[in-house]
Amino acid sequence: MKWINQKIGRQLMFAFYAVFIALSITSAIVYTYTEQKISQTDATFDDLRERRTNANALAYEWSAAQSNVKSYLLFGTPEMLNAVKTNQDEINRLTTWFEQNAIYTQGDQYATATRNLYDDYFGTAVPLLRQYVEQKQEGSVDEQFVDPKTLASLSNGSELFNSDGTLKGSNSQIDGEADTDGIEALLTNYLNVIQTEEDEAKASLLNEMRIAQFIWLSNLLVLVIILVLLVRPFINRVTKQINSLSRDSAHLASGEDVKELPLPKRRDELHTLTASFNQMAASIADNKVHMLAKNEELQAQQEELVAQQEELQAQQEELEEALEITLQSEQHLKYRNELTETLASRETLTAYPEIIEKLVSITHSEIGALLFLDQHDVRSTIEYGMTPDMVEQLIHEDQSLFHRARVLKRPVHSSKQVAHESPLPYPYYMYEVAVPILDPNEEKIIACIYLVRYRDAFTPEQMGDILSFSHQLSLSLMRMGIYEKMIHEKNKTGQLLNSIREAVVYIEHESDELLVNEPLMKLFPEIQTEHQDESNLSSFRQAMSALSSIIDEAEPFEQYIEQIVEQNLPKDSLVVSIRARSAYIQIYAEKIQINNVWVGTMLVLRDVTKETESDRMKEEFVSTVSHELRTPLSSIYGFTELMLNKSFEEERQLKYLQTIHSETGRLTTLVNDFLDVQRMESSEQRYQMSTFDIVELANDVTDFYGASHTTHTLAFAGNGPIMIDADSEKIKQLLNNLLSNAIKYSPDGGTVSIEVQNQDGFAEIKIRDEGMGIPQEAMSKLFDKFYRVDNSETRKIGGTGLGLSICKEIVKHHNGTIDVESTVGVGSTFTIRFPVAVISTILTYETE
């Protein structure tokens, strides 16, 4: 307790923790006790609820069993017998549960009585009735109502009946229903016991809740006692001591003397504060005496200080004058330095407004201007404090100081009296100076400095500053001219590189400087992604490394670049593919020499995708033509040779002639496809445009294919007329190609449907098949010439790969669209859309 009483905070925390611990302990006890009782009561209620539920279920099953036995006795159906067996199994399960879980005497009696009734009813009575029903169904028994004597005569009847049909131990005859009154009475007693137990559990729970409330009220009482015995005395003691200190502090502040305060018994902060306050009060009283004595001494010293202050004030005025001169010199030097730095660092005209402003400040001028000359004319002016009229007058008047300086090519100055009506602030004299700025190389005027002062002329020092800055400005203008020429040459070089259509990379071997053009960035955006600006390409190796990441054959490319870096220029060009063979690039290098010195290398990257693709298509064309033409020609040649050299019966000759005719038609189709592609590529294809009903045309094509192909079912749907402007023969060729593909690539048969409808002003034709489908990776090249899906199934089907390419050209010429949706193994849907002709709308209205 001694340690606690040393600090007010410890005392407060002790009271807080005492209250908190008391609340926590009592709350935990009440919560644990209440939770335990609630859990016990809940378990008791669950057990009683289960017993009541099972007892009711058992009574229900007995009632259902008796009802099902009566139904079985009346109707004798197997369903009724199965229902009785189901009731028997459920009664046996519930009776077993009561036998295993009985905790009350009534429960034991109920379980025993139920088991005895179960054994008698299902062990003897039910089998007897089942035997009676079976004999009745066999015809051995023929009775409208059950006769107890008949039951007594059965094999199991002697166990229940006497020979006269009366029950053993009874004078009444059996009516087929077991007596369950005793069981119901035991059930009622059992349910009453359960209800009694539930009421007792509820009463017990309420009693425990009252005990918990009592404990909680006791807890609140303990809290109030702690507050009254510990907290309230402590607060009163602290408040009383603080009030005393506050009252005596106010007396001290007003200059009154105070008595020493009694120290608290506890050595806490209040004890320390009271002791310090007593010490402070005693010290203030002692200091009061000393201050009165020193006050007189200070008055004498003050008179002496007044005399010294007057002397110091005179010295301060002298120092202020010297300081003002120093500050002026420092500001002048600062302006000179800033002007020098500006002239040295700025490279365009944007810096010169700041220059003329500082020059005006240094020379204490009122207004000024910088005039830049281009041959004989003033190219631009930068003025400070001058109006546009004043600048115009300075430039165009022949008697102006600016024109005198241009003629003499040396600094000139003048002075003139200012008229009284002038708006200038000093109506006395105006002093002008004009200093020409000469080009050191050609001795011609490239600029001029013009400054004006009022009241005072320019001092020699100021004129020296103006001449000095004129020389610096001359060097700055010359440097700016050189820089502008360099920028111009750089821009010209960049425009020359960008004007080259091939991608170009130039490397300067000595400085490792790298120049690229815009076609390189367009051809290889990956380089621009890594280096956001082409001027930021740090080195040739880094640029080529970024390029190598998209090249398929990286190793030969890197070897080629390494030869260029080692200045061992390759003689031959290199062709590589990029982005998974989506494009092909030809690379070659040229040596750049100046005065027979190898200064750099120009690397040219040329897009040869079209040439490579053209060569590939030529090879595929030759391969396709040689393969597709060889097959029908071989058949025609073989069958004609057989017919020329041998004699066959008429039926066989007809078969051979049909084969020759079919192969000739196939050959004709191939040649027509090749000719169509050639005409389309040379823009020589001719179209005979007319207006016709696309529904009728599509229906005719469908009927033709439906008659000639029995392995497929062709379904057509379309309501016409839908008129379009097109070449009917080309549209028929389009539909023939698509229907032929739908049938050809559905080798297992199936349905090919053609649907034509007017969709938002377009004639929409959809051709669906149930064939092998098209892989997703082949969609982008599906309409390319000579392209065919390469898999094991399509290799068995002949074709040139020109049909869909011709379809696309026909659709494109008619301002239409063609799209395809396909799922491998499910089928494909081709959708063609043509603009509807205006006449189709008129015809539609007329038919309606």
Automatic annotation (TrEMBL):
Keywords for the protein's UniProt record, in alphabetical order: ATP-binding, Cell membrane, Coiled coil, Kinase, Membrane, Nucleotide-binding, Phosphoprotein, Transferase, Transmembrane, Transmembrane helix, Two-component regulatory system
Residue ranges of every copy of the HAMP domain listed in the record: 236-289
A single GO molecular function term of this UniProt record: phosphorelay sensor kinase activity
GO cellular component term of the entry, any: plasma membrane
Enzyme class: transferase
Highest taxon, organism lineage: Bacteria
Main location: membrane
Locations listed in the record: Cell membrane
Protein name per UniProt: histidine kinase
